[in-house]
Amino acid sequence: MNYFASMNIQFMGAAKMVTGSKHLITTPNQTKILLDCGLVQGNHDKNIDYNRNFGFDPASVDYVILSHAHIDHSGLLPRLVKEGFNGIIFCTPGTFDLCKIMLMDSAHIQTADLGYLNKRRAKKKLQNIDPLYDVKDVEKALSLFQQIGYDENTKVNSEFSFQFTDAGHLLGSACVHLKIKTGPRKYKRITFTGDIGKYGDSILRDPQPFAQTDILICESTYGNKLHPLAIDAQAELLKIVEETCVQNKGKLIIPAFSVDRTQEIIYLLDQAHNNGSLPPIKIFVDSPLSVKATGVMRAHEECYRDAFLDYIAKDSDPFGFDNLEYVTDVEASKAINVLKEPCIIISASGMAEAGRVKHHIANNIDNPNTTILLVGYCTPESLGGKLKAGLTSVRIFGEEYQVKAKIKSLDYYSAHADYNEILKFLKCIKAAKVEKLFLVHGEYENQVAFKERLLDAGFKHIYIPDLKEQFDL
Ligand SMILES: [Zn+2]
Known about the structure:
This protein is α/β, with parallel strands linked by helices. The chain contains 14 helices and 22 strands. The protein has helices at 45-52, 71-74, 77-82, 93-123, 135-142, 233-247, 261-274, 288-298, 306-314, 330-338, 356-364, 383-388, 419-426, 444-456; strands at residues 8-13, 22-26, 32-35, 63-65, 88-91, 145-147, 154-155, 160-166, 174-183, 186-192, 215-219, 251-255, 282-286, 324-327, 343-347, 371-374, 393-396, 399-402, 406-409, 436-440, 462-463, 470-472. The strands form 4 sheets. It has a 7-stranded mixed β-sheet with strand order 6-5-4-3-2-1-22.
């Protein structure tokens, strides 16, 4: 081992932006460890290039350590494998189970989006492109996964070991703590936060404290934002259910991300059902991915917070009750459209840009008795974003629709810690002892604001890396 060789890190994604998380560490022994392998999201032509050119040779990477299953952290793994990566992908059991369904879904989206993308490219006289990867690449990638539980110290080889701690952001989400040998009896500790969850989630544990580190790579999505004060989400939701389904006899359509948001809403309704406050109306969870994701959520008690464990000790199925129906079949989904009685439809995608929820919205948006309830972040250009902005007409499947339905939102839900919560999370370590702190996964102006807050908290050497920028460690 050449102890005199230096170690470095290169930021290959989520640098001054929020998606495409990819950070490449080269150890003194030239071992290459890639932290996350995320897809850059959003339909910009420059993003097409980011997702097709890694900027390094995938075959040269020895290990991937994956923080969590969100596509902006895991979505390029099948592409990495397609381009020659053949090492081990480490992640937690919860992340592995979510990746199985989310990467498959991503492969289908890649193929489905291509028609639209190539049409746009043809107009600009650009060449047609192939999908980033297909189902076979996903299967190959999944065969390289190795599951490691939280807090297990994993010695990978004589040069480095690592450990996961719970980040409380998504089922299976983890902070990664590496210990890398840099000389005789000398080590460097590197912590990558991945995405940090909020405190007080209804199902998941709070972000767990971790041991002192030398190098910190920290997310900064909400580096300049505080969440609104917690509202009583169950009371708000029940008020909307009462107005829409009982008083107006209409349909309540809730576009929701398949993983976590959907289960949070089902759990709220399950509690209301148990305490007798839910009116006896039909509820449909209409999305094959949401149905699978709920199955994964049921299987990972190791990620549950104590209060949720107490709840399931009394009600063994927190995601199921009379009147709640999971729908996977297309015909059964279409049958909801002709249903005349009031009901609640929870369906993906969360921004109403794709999936079955788009059909439900198209079928009911011109009915003033309908309510569309937005429960997550929507980009301004998405259908959800346009509805949230109050547009009076929108295009869906190429047709113009008048917005007569009521549009409401429950902003209480966010899977990311705000800046106060990140600072609280980092209190477990001594700021002055951190040699270098890198801010990733944030818009630049938020990162600049967050850097000031971190300086106030006693952190000293704070960097906001550019894409592809490399630093000695
Ligand atoms: Zn995430």
